[in-house]
């Protein structure tokens, strides 16, 4: 998440709320090639699709912690701009998917207006993959900090994906190459603010239950509110949802829907939502700094072949091909994303967790 300094300034996560149990994986151990840590990272990515990445005692990690601090204050700054200025940059899906989304633009699962505002800044603008589109002057002045944060997250992504590739027995760059930083994509930095939740009416879902569209999401926040649906729990039962407790010096990592597609259902994309902050944390605004990594636009969404990834042929023989897989496989990431969002809007496919399949044991050479 972020440095201890930001945590010290915030009301504490209440002791009487029991958070979800989630693995804590050390970036420094992954970089050192620690086999036990790599296995633990893979298992967390497969079974829950969420884990805490401990950034301490590592140079890239420490740089990330400093980056979070700076982007966290950019999130505060952008949301402090006058509403009239933010509204000049509104998202207009499906065509304009970056910019400002006001609270209430979306609905929660009960049909009520959502309680989250965000500003999405596209990697293509940050890395100059396209002529820079308009952003508020305030953000243009923060461009160097945004670029260096995205750069460092991209380095962490490389380490993470090569670890997972190692466990899957495929070449280290196999998944990395599907999200090149120079190819146009939907990758973005999302700066989120939730208002305080002071009344009974405020104590409800702020962002609808969903899975992320892309490949990997990196989240930094200080105030609780994000909840996950543990595997095999009923999404309609409110008590199934568990808060994730933000931890200083850590990033929360989760996987989006592309990973189960590419791995034949092994890596997991898990349902989550944002609810009101617990205890006294509800008294203050909640900020989240999120990097949503998405595949390059032209990348095909079909299952990859190699290593321990279960093959389509075997699944066809066993009649266990996941619903919709064949139809989605021929699409590029861009077409896939559009199709998924149309399906979601029309209610054709409700969001649900996917992945979590066990791998056959590794045959040692
Ligand atoms: O604010 C958060 O903690 C999570 C936001 C989220 O899930 C998203 O933007 O996809
Ligand atoms: Fe999400």
TrEMBL record:
Residues 185-295 form the Fe2OG dioxygenase domain. The keyword Cell division does not apply. It comes from the Eukaryota. GO terms for biological process: small molecule biosynthetic process. InterPro entries: DIOX_N (IPR026992), IPNS-like_FE2OG_OXY (IPR044861), IPNS-like_sf (IPR027443), Iron_ascorbate_oxido_reductase (IPR050231), Oxoglu/Fe-dep_dioxygenase_dom (IPR005123). PROSITE patterns: FE2OG_OXY. The keyword Transcription does not apply. SUPFAM superfamilies: Clavaminate synthase-like. One of its GO terms (molecular function) is metal ion binding. Belongs to the iron/ascorbate-dependent oxidoreductase family. PANTHER family: 2-OXOGLUTARATE (2OG) AND FE(II)-DEPENDENT OXYGENASE SUPERFAMILY PROTEIN-RELATED (PTHR47990). This is Oxidoreductase. It comes from Viridothelium virens. The lineage of its organism: Eukaryota, Fungi, Dikarya, Ascomycota, Pezizomycotina.
């Amino acid at each position: 998440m972020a440095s201890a300094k930001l945590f010290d300034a915030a009301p504490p996560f209440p002791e009487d709320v029991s958070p979800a149990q989630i693995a804590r994986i050390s970036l420094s151990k992954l970089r050192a090639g620690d086999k036990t840590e790599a296995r633990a990272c893979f298992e967390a990515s497969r079974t829950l699709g969420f884990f805490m990445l401990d950034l301490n005692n590592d140079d890239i990690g420490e740089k990330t912690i400093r980056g979070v601090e700076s982007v966290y204050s950019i999130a505060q700054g952008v949301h402090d701009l006058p509403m009239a200025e933010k509204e000049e940059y509104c998202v207009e899906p499906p065509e304009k998917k970056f910019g400002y989304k006001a609270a209430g633009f979306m609905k929660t699962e009960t049909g009520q207006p959502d309680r989250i505002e965000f500003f999405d800044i596209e990697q293509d603008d940050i890395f100059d993959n396209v002529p820079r589109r308009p952003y508020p002057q305030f953000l243009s002045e923060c461009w160097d900090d945004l670029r260096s944060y995205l750069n460092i997250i991209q380095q962490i992504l490389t380490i993470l994906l090569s670890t997972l590739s190692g466990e899957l027995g495929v070449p280290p760059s196999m998944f990395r190459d599907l999200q090149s930083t120079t190819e146009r994509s939907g990758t973005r930095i999302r700066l989120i603010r939730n208002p305080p939740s002071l009344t009974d009416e405020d104590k409800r879902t702020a962002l609808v239950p969903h899975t992320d569209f892309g490949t990997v999401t990196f989240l930094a926040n200080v105030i609780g509110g994000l909840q996950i649906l543990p595997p095999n729990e009923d999404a309609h039962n409110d008590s199934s949802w568990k808060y994730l407790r933000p931890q200083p010096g850590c990033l929360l990592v989760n996987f989006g829907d592309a990973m189960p597609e590419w791995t034949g259902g092994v890596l997991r994309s898990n349902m989550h939502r944002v609810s009101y902050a617990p205890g006294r944390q509800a008294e203050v605004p909640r900020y989240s700094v999120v990097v949503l990594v998405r595949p390059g636009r032209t990348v095909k969404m079909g299952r990859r072949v190699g290593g321990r990834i279960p093959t389509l042929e075997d699944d066809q023989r066993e009649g266990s091909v996941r619903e919709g897989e064949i139809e989605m496989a021929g699409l590029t990431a861009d077409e896939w994303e559009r199709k998924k969002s149309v399906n979601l809007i029309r209610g054709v496919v409700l969001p649900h967790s996917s992945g979590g399949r066990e791998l056959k044991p590794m045959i040692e050479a």
